[in-house]
Design a protein that fits this description.
Layout lengths: L1 H46 L4 H31 L1
Amino acid sequence: MEEVKTVATQVGSYKELASALAIGLGAIGPGLGIGILAAKALEAVGRNPEAAGKIQSMMILAIAFAEAIAIYALVVALIIKFA
């Protein structure tokens, strides 16, 4: 009976580790992407201040797409944890 509890505990531990890795690694890419995107947008506004509105709207759209990838990683982490 103890062996069954030990295996169940190990599976639970692996699921928690897998869900933590899924969201941790899944958030690195969008985080870097959003940082680079914001830096380039600020650089573009610095070079052409008249186009700030157009650059800002395009930047916000691109940030939303990058953030969607992080949300997918969160969903996968939750599926791993609770399934």
